[in-house]
Amino acid sequence: MTSVTSTLILLFAAFTAVTAKTIQIGTDGLKFVPEAVEAAVDDVLEFHFGPRNHSVVMGDFGSACVPAAKGGFFSGFLPAAEGEENNKVFRVTVNDTSPVVFYCSQNSHQHCTAGMVGVVNSNNDSLNAYKTAAAKIPTALSPAEVFGGVLGPRPTETALAPATTAASSNGASRGGGAGAVGAALTVGTLLFGLKEALEMI
Fold first, then answer.
1. Signal peptide: which range, if any (predicted)?
2. What's the CA gap between 121 and 53, in Å, rounded?
3. Could you list the residue range(s) of the whole structural domain that residue 118 is in?
4. Same-domain pairing of 38 and 5
């Protein structure tokens, strides 16, 4: 019985340790909500795609509306009807504490140029400076293929934390690499582990 209890405790601890930062895309016009997020290493940026046809691309602060020169991520374009969300989300695992900027690369209505950008663990000055630079760029660039994160089904309910608006002037984060599934242990995984543990009794 002790081993069963220990197994359940470990499963629960692993599940509750996952922190997802939900970022809505296009649900409130041409913007990310929130535009500024704080995230720690191993947190997950979970992008939800609203009406029209949006993407999310990691960029560099010095080159507006252009994919990051090193690393980064790209969701591809995920359309949704008015008043709805795409049935998929794009999850990027934060793997270090460098500042990150991202943008929508949709060129119909010039989303990036219109200020559809966001930052992770950066400050409002950096966000506003990027928007100013983006306003002068006629065309946003998209990577050739989806990378740096995982596309998965949109959760109907989630126990993962919502995004926290960045307030610090020196916070930093980076989502990159191959990316991992946002919620490393889903409720289904937890329940499967519970079933296995109960069968041991």
1. 1-20
2. 26
3. 20-182
4. no
Say if residue 33 is in the same domain as residue 131. yes
pTM for the predicted model, two decimal places: 0.73
φ/ψ of 199, rounded to 5, equals -70, -15
Flag whether pLDDT at 171 surpasses 50.
no
Q: For the range 5-9, what are the long-range contacts, defined as Cβ-Cβ under 8 Å and sequence gap of 24 or more?
A: 7/193, 7/196, 7/197, 7/200, 8/193, 8/194, 8/197
User: Which tens digits make up the pLDDT trace of 37-96?
Assistant: 999 999 999 999 999 999 999 999 999 999 999 999 999 999 999 999 999 999 999 999
191 and 158 within one domain: no
d(CA 143, CA 66): 9
Closest CA to 29 of 115, 123, 130: 115
Q: Tokens 């994160």 label which residue? A: 149
Place of tokens 């629960």: 12
Same domain, 58 and 113: yes
21 Cα distance to chain centroid: 7
Q: Is 195 found in the same domain as 128? A: no
Distance CA 90, CA 57 (A): 11
Domain count along the chain: 2
Same domain, 143 and 201: no
Q: Which CATH number do you get for residue 49?
A: 2.60.40.420
